Amino acid sequence: MEYAIGVDIGGTKVQFAAVDPEGRMINRHLVPTEAHLGPQQLMEKVIAGIERIASDLQPDEGIAGIGIGSAGQIDFRTGKVAFAGDTLPGWTGVPIKRYVEERFRKPVYVDNDVNVIAVAEKVYGAGRDYASFVCLALGTGVGGAIVESGQLVRGAFGGAGELGHVSVDFNGPRCGCGNYGCIELYASGTGIARLGKEALEESGESADWQANSREIIQAWLQGNPLAVQVMDRVIRALGSAIAGFIHTFNPEAVIIGGGVSETGSVFFESLDEAVQARTSDAMRQACRILPAYVGADAGVIGAAAQVWYYGNNK
Ligand SMILES: [Zn+2]
């Protein structure tokens, strides 16, 4: 049996696993990123983690390749970090692919952490049956990826698909990217918490929920009026952004993952209504809004899935 080694480099932890062609993981482990120690230390951790996975394989188990997903903007062709912000200081410019190839002499694929989630959905998940779809990852921020004719849309240097920075309100608050009213400011965990805090302050009410996204969502599901008001804004903002993506890409599906979307069917039903109200009929009817299939481990599974995906498409 051959395995693909997957590495998911995030701001707080680096995850490793060997993944088989069916998406089953073995030998998984994780280490803290400790980004403050600098890029060289982090690169050494990545190498050491891959070595550990490789040495834990049985003699009859081989390595088909190594797939890496990293926070930041990645130039897929060169496997170099095009830009990484404060999450991974000093990571910009690191030639990840070259380092790993030189050490292991295997095919190596490097992409950003949301593009690899789209690859996981394409190879194993909700995107399996679709040639064109849009992925949204609702977490601390909002990540995006676009698949067209079975291929990720990359743009000039691999930066395409930053869908979290599409504005839904040009009068909205300033975003870190420079724009105003980006969807990330409304539909991320951080955004929901901000709207919750504002709503609590404006109402002057005390509530038995705190302004964090998990508690706001719980209160929303229990019908708390203030939380309903907050989530109504979140869903209208997200619906407006998705309507824009549908009109731009005419996708067969919009696949939504991440903590916020794990709320279940109520979230998807409300979102469906909000999108419906903002989209022309033909476009809307051609598109399904689906929960992501691959769950919390989508980052490391998707990183590895690159090996099967690109290996089979050569
Ligand atoms: Zn932005």
The CATH homology group name of the largest domain: ATPase, nucleotide binding domain
Number of strands: 12
Average pLDDT level = 93
Ends apart, CA distance between termini: 21 Å
Shape: globular
Give structural notes.
The chain is α/β, with parallel strands linked by helices and 314 residues long. It folds into two domains: 2-122 and 296-312, 2-Layer Sandwich (Nucleotidyltransferase, domain 5); 129-291, ATPase, nucleotide binding domain (Nucleotidyltransferase, domain 5, 2-Layer Sandwich), CATH 3.30.420.40. 39% of the residues lie in helices and 22% in strands. It is built from ten helices and twelve strands. The longest helix has 25 residues, at 225-249. The two termini are 21 Å apart. Bound molecules: zinc ion. Residues 165, 175, 177, 179, 182, 184 line the site of zinc ion (ZN).
List the helices and strands and how they pair.
Layout: E1 2-9, E2 13-19, E3 25-32, H1 39-56, E4 62-70, E5 73-75, E6 80-83, H2 96-104, E7 108-112, H3 113-124, E8 133-138, E9 142-148, E10 151-152, H4 184-187, H5 189-203, H6 213-221, H7 225-249, E11 253-257, H8 265-276, H9 281-285, E12 288-291, H10 298-312
Parallel strand pairs: 1-4, 4-7, 8-11, 11-12
Antiparallel strand pairs: 1-2, 2-3, 5-6, 8-9, 9-10
Helix pairs in contact: 3-10, 5-7, 6-7, 7-8
Bound molecules: zinc ion.
Offer a few descriptive terms.
314 residues, 2 domains, binds zinc ion, single chain, Nucleotidyltransferase, domain 5, alpha/beta, 5-stranded mixed sheet
